[in-house]
Amino acid sequence: MTSPSLFDDLPPDPLxxxxxxxxxxxxxxxxxxxxxxxxxxxxxxxxxxPERPPSLAAVTEAMDDLVQQGRAQRVEGLGVTVPVDAAWHxxxxxxxxxxxxxxxxxxxxxANGGTPMRPDGEPAWVRLPTAADRVGLxxxxxxxxxxxxELMRLxxxxxxxxxxxxxxxxxxxxxxxxxxxxxxxxEHRGLLAHLVMAAQADTPAALREAVDxxxxxxxxxxxxxVRCRLAxxxxxxxxxxxxxxxxxxxxxxxxxxxxxxxxxxAGQWPQAAADGQAxxxxxxxxxxxxxxxLPQELVWPLVLSLLAQPEATAWSTARKLCVAESxxxxxxxxxxxxxxAHAAAVRLGDQAIDPQxxxxxxxQALDPDHLLMQASRLLLAAWAGHTPGGWTALRARHxxxxxxxxxxHWMAALVREAAVRLGLMAAADVHAPPPGATPPAxxxxxxxxxxxxxxxxxxALGGDGTPDHxxxxxxxxxxxxxxxxxxxxxxxxxxxxxxxxxxxxxPLTLNKVKASARLDARDAAVARxxxxxxxSARQLVLDVTGAAxxxxxxxxxxxxxxxxxxxxxxxxxxxxxxxxxxxxxxxQYVFRIDPPLQPATPPHLGEGWFYADERQAEVERRNSLRVxxxxxxxxxxxxxxPAQRRVAELVSQxxxxxxxxxxxxxxxxxxxxxxFQLHSDAAAGTEVPGESRLRAQLVPVGDALQxxxxxxxxxGFGPAVPPAVGxxxxxxxxxxxxxxxxxxxxxxAAHLRSVLDALPWLEGSEAGEAxxxxxxxxxxxxxxxxxxxxxxxxxxxWPRGKPVRVTTVAPHALAVRVSSERQWFALEGELKVxxxxxxxxxxxxxxxxxxxxxxxxxxxxxxYLALTERLRQxxxxxxxxxxxxxxxxxxxxxxxxxxxxxxxDGMQVDGDNPWRQRLAALQAAARLQPExxxxxxxxxxxxxxxxxxxxxxxxxAGLGAxxxxxxxxxxxxxxxxxxLARAELGPALVVAPTSVAGNWxxxxxxxxxxxxxxxxxxxxxxxxxxxxxxxxxxxxxxxVSYALVQLxxxxxxxxxxxxxxMDEAQAVxxxxxxxxxxxAELKADFRLALTGTPVENRLADLWSIxxxxxxxxxxxxxQFNERFGSPIEKQQDAAARARLRRLVSPFLLRRxxxxxxxxxxxxxxxxxxxxxxxxxxxFLEALRRNAVERIQAxxxxxxxxxxxHVLAELTRLRRAACDPRLxxxxxxxxxxxxxxxxxxxxxxxxxxxxxxxxxxxxxxxxLLGRRLDDAGIAYQYLDGSTPGPERARRVAAFQxxxxxxxxxxxxxxxxxxxxxxxxxVLIVDPWWNPAAEDQAMGRAHRIGQQRPVxxxxxxxxxxxxxxxVELHRDKRGLADGLLEGQDEGKAIGADELRELLLGTPxxx
Length: 1404
Fold this sequence. Notes:
Layout: H1 15-26, H2 32-46, H3 56-68, E1 73-75, E2 79-81, H4 86-96, H5 104-112, H6 131-142, H7 148-156, H8 165-173, H9 178-183, H10 186-199, H11 205-217, H12 224-236, H13 240-246, H14 253-265, H15 269-287, H16 296-307, H17 312-326, H18 336-348, H19 355-358, H20 371-384, H21 393-405, H22 409-421, H23 450-459, E3 478-484, E4 490-497, E5 506-507, H24 510-515, H25 521-527, E6 530-532, E7 540-542, H26 544-550, E8 557-559, E9 562-571, E10 575-583, E11 586-594, H27 612-623, E12 625-631, E13 634-639, H28 642-651, E14 656-658, H29 662-672, E15 677-680, E16 686-687, E17 694-701, E18 704-711, E19 729-734, E20 737-742, H30 745-758, E21 771-774, H31 777-786, E22 793-797, E23 805-809, E24 814-820, E25 824-834, E26 837-840, H32 841-850, E27 856-860, E28 863-867, H33 869-881, E29 883-884, E30 890-893, H34 897-903, E31 908-911, H35 913-927, H36 942-956, E32 961-963, H37 971-981, E33 988-992, H38 994-1007, E34 1012-1015, H39 1025-1030, E35 1036-1041, H40 1042-1047, H41 1049-1053, E36 1056-1062, H42 1074-1080, E37 1083-1090, H43 1099-1109, ...
Parallel strand pairs: 3-8, 9-13, 10-15, 16-20, 17-22, 23-28, 24-31, 32-37, 32-38, 33-35, 33-36, 34-35, 36-37, 39-44, 40-42, 40-43, 41-42, 43-44
Antiparallel strand pairs: 1-2, 3-4, 4-5, 6-7, 8-9, 10-11, 11-14, 12-13, 15-19, 17-18, 18-21, 19-20, 24-25, 25-26, 25-30, 27-28, 29-30
């Protein structure tokens, strides 16, 4: 901040310069009266006020001087002004750095006049009649430093007249004074940026650049709202990575919404819509409001993701969202959200199209403030299939260019797509996004026939809610309750509505139904029976007879005594049964009508029927209808005609017809067949063959499906009866002909049995009828798929709701084209559904992913594909290994060629020449039968020879390999065989832990003396380090530690090695470490990883190793975690585990000792509990309680800091369980474990045994060593500080018998050592990772061991060690489940660590 001496160089009375400063502060034409007031204030503020204030004449003279000097210009009628040029920038910046700057605005306001002042000298409000006044004064406020709270107080108080969006933007950015902006306090700067960015659809570029720089310099200073605005701009500009970068460190529903919008940009519409709506709901809940107030720019992409889907229910959801955003129940289609809502309503059939809503708005032309609205008109017109008026190719091009100029590249691409669809532009006229920007996914699907849209919209009638499953039937807006009397006559009809989320429907008044502006068409038919009462103009009544007839086939009917059961109400004829009976008079035909058509009692009409004639007419109308309830979910409505009533009257007279009256009976039956459903034992009418096959009637019920099997003996018309029950003979009238048919009841029963055998999930149905409720979508679709294939099924009928069609597809229906690139295979393909429709490969993969584990994928419009189990598995595997690249191509890493060939088996595959050549090379490698190199001085066991051949084949194919044999199975000698075989191809490099480098050298000299082996950097190596690398040639084997590879990474990376071996490859399991990155940068023709534990803690270990061997095979680390890590470790996903096993099995070979070494002595593991003394027990408990209190005091914050503290407390408890002296030596408590250790060791030594002793803590090992010294027991010692040559010497000494015990730190000696002299292993403190312990045991239990090996784990009773042992089962399961096919195992995480400490048993 500049000091007050800024103006000290001015003359005592520089009136001309003072007037010039006043004009600089105003930056607009000012009259002399205004300048007089401002000049007097400035002189006083500078301390230069003369005894006599300047006069108006003096100011006028100063103005003239400025004009003559060219420093000011005269504006007719307004006064004078100064040009806003570089000189103005310099002077204005200097003026704003004066301490008086925060008060300039008050002087400005006072000079304007007409401003009432408060006692504190601040205006109560400011009179600002012109735009220049408002911008000029506000500029002084914005660019002068002040607290953010004060700035907001001024904008909402005295300066409210100047706080409009346009004024804010102009004051800050016209011009934008970057140096002043950067000098403002961070809080002030953030508020200014937020105010302008929130007010403007397009943030001025200069301000955005300033905020960009600010975010790069000090991201923590930039307020979250500003970062979100910046992220939104980057998203719409196509910079999705930049969007994520702007939001780093932020969390919450709004950030989840941005993630959803990124999915929308990539075309993952269903997931984007689901995640976006969930984020909006969470944001609203967090704000305590029904709806979150979000910027328009964050909502329309979400609406876009709903409109992009083929289901009408998604369009309906989009419409509801737009209406909610508009703030009006009926937004005008000429408003932004009204237009989007109108387009959805047009596509749904709810509104007639308003052509003007989509036409080019000449009044707005291409005004930058209205570009988004114009773009929406063209885009939504194309989506709705409407050709809008007024649009031309030139206007579309100008619109695209205007959007691009504003950075709206997403919308620009959408407009171009719409213009192409509407024929305004050619498809080749592509809108180019800026460099580095990601083009958005296409939005407009292929044009659909109008009838498809119409049927989809009809299916969505009766509710705008998105169904839980595509099978869900369209639920009508209203429900209708029927009340029946004892004879089945309708007594009352009551409308109900089902409020969202409510369990019970709510009754509606007739007035509300009548007044409803939007009724479902089926409800409207019922509502037409509402009329005004004759006795009261205000009262409405319902004609229940007419209403009941309108409810036929209505999907929302239920009965008063069964409110939770929807009923299928169909119209039917009454049944008349003509049965042959033998009685005293002989054989006769008797007649029976069902239901009885003659009323036994008069109907109850209720009140209001005062006139006898009207009452009688209503009685007749009520008696003319009967509702027969056949099943809880099915009923028949029968309209009784006068002819039927007359027949009923005749039948009620209880007469019978002799069997001999054939002529008269046949004539009567022909007439009856036209009025009744006739079941007759008497022959009449034209006899036709009966159809005994079954028809499946399917009705959607919620997200379930009602199935009923019936027989229709006349085919597609006539009565439908339950199979195998009822009368044999049926009659019907069809097109004026009387037809008769004889049913084959036995054949119907056989057909029913065959269906039940084929569909075993169909069990016995209620009421003896063949009816079932298929209550899961998977079961329903499985049934719909199977029924048409059964010989016993004649047809599928859909009496109500949209039919569901299921097409079964197998791999041979999928045609795939494979094209080769250097590191990738690009896949294109299509599945032929029928002669008129195909589904692209990427679309099929997305649909299969949405179906998750099911075989059925929705095509939309009630159509499904039923994938065979094999095809479903193939698609899941492709999704797991492949990914869509930024250029839209679905690609898989070249390393997966063999796997890809197997996965595409059975499909129609067309590959390019490089693909075919690659397959030929793989087949050649598979046929390879390599011979063991002659220079190998060892006899390999059969499994070792197989391992060598396996490595040779992968090397021949140019693929990396991971030999993951159990510890002690001779991975080194198998590798030396491989190195000998490849020696002529160039030098080999072995990277290994320091502790085993000497062992590699010794074994190479023993088993492969033909190799010139040397240790890099070793004193015995004559070459210097550069020469060791640069001069290495065929036959050379250079052995180096991981530490030195990291240190000399550039040296090793500057050449290519014929073979690279990574021994104990778990050392590079963390891909983020410098060590792993250094090894990954090494260039080699063949890479081999050796490890006994490819999965130690998490599956990420395996990814890191496999990515070293075959980069890209398992995708990126993020993709691997999404596809395999989280599903397997957190959700125990067996399918994901099996898929990962299939992916890595060609490149990973693992054999266990139990599998291949039947002659290896057994290994016994014993958990040896050590009982602590009373003092030690009390100490351990007190230590645990203190740790629990400290962790509980941290709360449930989570995060890395909490995990670090939990782990630190656990480590302290583990050390105390070893010996209290490790954490509190001042107490002098000697641990029971050390005493028990000495007792156990003495027994072992007395029994002529030798033992390896492992501990994680070197200070505990040294404490045990001192105890051995005191007892006179000889031992060897090895930890991480032991130099490499000394390690090899001590190992050799122990193998020669020098020392009864070998004390080894777990990490330093857990691998690479051959210590078969020992037959006992003592693990004196259990470690989290059982794999590390297994490695340690393997030092003794390996090839060459002649005696059984016994392992003791010393565990202090009641301590944290007991809980660690409980973890070992799960940890072992993670590796075994992947490598050996077991179905258990999970990784340990921060939550498990916390549970260990707080005392909750793991897994509970």
